[in-house]
Amino acid sequence: MSEEAVIGPDEFKRVLGHFASGVTVVTSVIDGVPAGMTIQSFTSVSLDPPLVGFLPSRDSSSWLAMKESGSFCVNILGFAQEDLCMTMASRAEDKFDGVDWVAGPTGSPVFPGSIGWIDCTIEAVHEAGDHDIVVGRVVHLEAVEDGADPLLFFKGGFGAFS
């Protein structure tokens, strides 16, 4: 039987930083108040039924509030939306102050300028270490077909696909 290697969080983050990911903002409305958080761990889960997933930190105050709403919207950010990304990644009291948005079919915020959005109801939540795995059933989605570049994250910085 081999010994298990102990991998520290700093080394884990450093190596995983070499994996480029798209940037999304997941939104919801709780008691009429919009909530949002920047998420890079977004994925397609199933085509039939249409399911997507994301992995928020279990101690995220935004996620704890959103979890109770029963729905969320994934906004796929374009390269020009780095400021929105940083706003939604902050711990600001009112992240939506001065931010334009419209309600999607579930009522969750959709940001104009996003290159796509996916509105969902929460299908399941699974605990996984210090994160939750959230599975959402897609109720509506749209993509902008204007050739806008996505916002990408790689090695601690932002870039675009070219």
Describe this structure in words.
A hairpin with a 5-residue loop joins strand 7 and strand 8. The longest helix has 8 residues, at 9-16. The protein has helices at 9-16, 61-67, 82-89; strands at residues 21-22, 24-30, 33-39, 42-46, 51-54, 71-76, 102-103, 109-110, 116-128, 131-143, 151-154, 157-160. By secondary structure, it is mainly beta. 14% of the residues lie in helices and 43% in strands. The model has no long low-confidence stretch (mean pLDDT 91). The chain has a single domain, classed as Pnp Oxidase, Chain A, CATH 2.30.110.10.
Structure summary:
This protein has helices at 9-16, 61-67, 82-89; strands at 21-22, 24-30, 33-39, 42-46, 51-54, 71-76, 102-103, 109-110, 116-128, 131-143, 151-154, 157-160.
CATH topology-level name: Pnp Oxidase, Chain A
CATH architecture: Roll
The number of domains is 1
Order of helices and strands: HEEEEEHEHEEEEEE
What is the alpha-carbon Rg in Å? 16 Å
The number of helical runs is 3
CATH C-level: Mainly Beta
Largest sheet at a glance?
A: 7 strands, antiparallel
- How helix-rich are the residues, as a percent range? 10-25%
What are the main properties of this structure?
162 residues, mainly beta, Pnp Oxidase, Chain A, 3-stranded antiparallel beta sheet, 12 strands, globular
List the helices and strands and how they pair.
Blueprint: H1 9-16, E1 21-22, E2 24-30, E3 33-39, E4 42-46, E5 51-54, H2 61-67, E6 71-76, H3 82-89, E7 102-103, E8 109-110, E9 116-128, E10 131-143, E11 151-154, E12 157-160
Antiparallel strand pairs: 1-11, 2-3, 2-6, 4-5, 5-10, 6-9, 7-8, 9-10, 11-12
